[in-house]
């Protein structure tokens, strides 16, 4: 598939001249509208292909989404422009477009700049959302990188072997030497040491552990040699559960986003119905077909939801991803959204907001 970035850049390069030609009368040379058509066609058809494809798939399943409205609006604007160019007066040499508010029949009006601009704007929003996802994914990968890659397993006969972390099983005994990361969650059987748990708890002072103490994978053994029995491996470790928490927070939906989805399910059919009602009303009022169709197309175009489906998920992705980078684990989008009501933060112990490093002031 074509990368979204390439689709966006190509569409933007083609759409900018269309916008300039359509909005600045001084640039409108003889037969400029045909050049605008040549430039706008690939933007609407090829650039907007992801929206058209999604709208078609949803239509086959009897569903209407924001992609449906985007596809309908851009196709209607482009389709009307084709009609105006080939069958109306818009294709005449020397045709000019200005932005006067006087009534017109509409047959000499084209909407190529609208179809192009809406397509590019939506592509830009999707690209920014995809970038936010990649950034959040990098934060998640960095979180998972905190875990150990290898472990020293002790065989029943007392000998040792170096294995990949994936080979550890519950009940295995493994040895953790000073400076090594603890391979997985477990219980200390032998040895006494201090374990740096800052990556989980934020505490800058290592915690003392001995026989019977529970330790977590990814924490660092700062003191003596430990023999640990594995109690949780793979997805059952605390580190894996934290990563899963971040994933759920990024893929979940906040209350405002769920509300937007419910509104969209009603909004799209209502807009289509309003466009048809507008067409019928103008025809019943005695207007010609061109003017009535222009009004109906305008309803579809102004209803294109450029921001409704993009702002909230992008904010959630960036917020949870940046939080993970800073060591703030957000349980879900509802939690992130509810922070607007927070007026007091209570910290239960020292070490939570301190670094544990001395600084020379004077």
UniProtKB/TrEMBL annotation:
Q: GO CC annotations? A: plasma membrane
Q: Which UniProt keyword terms apply here?
A: Membrane, Metal-binding, Translocase, Transmembrane, Transmembrane helix
Please give a single GO biological process term from the UniProt record.
Answer: copper ion homeostasis
Q: Does the keyword Kinase apply?
A: no
Q: Where in the cell is it found?
A: Cell membrane
Presence of keyword Transmembrane: yes
Regions that span the bilayer: 7-26, 32-49, 69-90, 110-128, 263-285, 291-318
Give the Gene Ontology MF terms in alphabetical order: ATP binding; ATP hydrolysis activity; copper ion binding; P-type divalent copper transporter activity
Q: Which domain of life is it from?
A: Bacteria
Sequence ranges assigned to domain P-type ATPase A in this UniProt record: 149-246
Identify its membrane topology class.
Multi-pass membrane protein
Q: Known PANTHER family for this protein?
A: ATP7, ISOFORM B, P-TYPE CU(+) TRANSPORTER
Family of the protein in this entry: Belongs to the cation transport ATPase (P-type) (TC 3.A.3) family. Type IB subfamily.
* UniProt name for this protein: HAD-IC family P-type ATPase
Gene source species: Actinospica acidithermotolerans
